[in-house]
User: What shape does this take?
Amino acid sequence: MKIIIAYASAGAGHRKAAEALYHYFNKAQPSIDLRLIDVLKKANPVFKNIYRYGYHFLVSHTMWLWGVLFWVTSFKRFDSIIKPLSLLISRINADRFVDFLIHEQPDILISTHFLPAEIAAYLKRKNKIKSKLVTVVTDFGIHPFWVLAGTDLYIVASSFTKGELLNNGVKESSIRDFGIPVPSEFTKPYDKEALREKLGIARDKLNVLITTGSFGIGPVDKIVESLYQDVQLIVVCANNKRLYKRLKRKNYPNVLVFGFIDNIQELMAVTDIVIAKPGGLTTSELLNMELVPVFICPIPGQETMNINALAKFGIGKFARRVEDIKEIVFDYKAHAEKLTEVKERIRRIKKPNANQDIYDALC
Assistant: This one.
C-alpha cells in the first residue's frame, strides 16, 4: 500500500497534523510505502514564497485584510468564480506536485491542507489518479475551500464541524468526527508533581500558561504585567525573540519565560489555564491536555470560527482586552468549581485517539 500525506507549510498547524499522522502510521505499520510531502516544495519559488510568507505577513501585519479575503471567499455565490480560479492558479504553480501524484499513483492521499486536496480532487475528476482522497480539516469551522468534489472522506474536529460539512452538502457517510491529529505527546498522561519539581512550577498557585502561537502574536507584556502578582505565569514566546529578551530583562517574580521550545506539552501538563491564540492544532492540543482556554488575538476567519465552535460546547472564553483577561482569570481563581465544570465539558469532546481512529479507518 502506498500512502502520501500532504500538507502546505503556510502556518505550523497543517504540518504538525501531517507529521502526527506520518509518525503514527509509520510506527503502526512500517511496511507501508509512506511519504510526507510539503506541496509548496513542489511549487515554483514565486508561488511558494507568496503562499508561505504572504500568509505570515497578512496575519502578522494586516490581519484585517486577511479577514476581508476570508470573508469574500466564504460566499457560496462566488464559488463558481473563485474555486475554478484558485484551482487554475494552483495547477499552474504547483505543476511538479501534479506530475508527482500522476507518477506515484498513491492508493491513499491524506491532505491536511486544502491546496493538495484541491489538486488531487481535480486529478481524480479527470481520471488521472485513482487514489482515495482523505481530507483532514485542521480547524473547527469549515471554509468552502475544504469542500471538494472528488473527496472520499473528511476527517473533522467535532460534531459541530461535521454539521458544518453537512450544511455544505457533504454526505454524512463521507464524514468522520475523529478529531484533529496531534502528536502523541499531547495524548499521554504525565506525572504532574514530578514535572512541577523539574520545571520549578509553584504547587500552591493557579498556574497560567501564555502562548503566542508560531508567529509570536499578542499583547503578552501587558498580560504579564496585569497577572504576575496574583498567579504563577509560564510564558512561551516562540519565535518572538524581542519579547523573550524584554521579559527576561524585567525578571518578574512568579513568571517563567521560555523561547522556542519542544516540550510545550510538559508545560501544559502542569497548567490550569492557557491564554492562547485559537489555532486549530493549538486548540486540539490544549483540549487533549484538558486545559481551560482563554482565547486572544484570533486570526479573522478560521480562528474566530474555532472560538464560535467551542462556545457551542461551553468551552473557552474570548478576551478582547487585557482587562477582560484579568477578569476571566481572577474569576476562575475565585471559583475553582468553574474550572472543574469546563474541564468536564472538555473531557466529553476531546479526541485523544484521532491518529489511531484515522489509521484504523484507512488501513
Remarks:
- The chain has two domains: 2-177, 185-349.
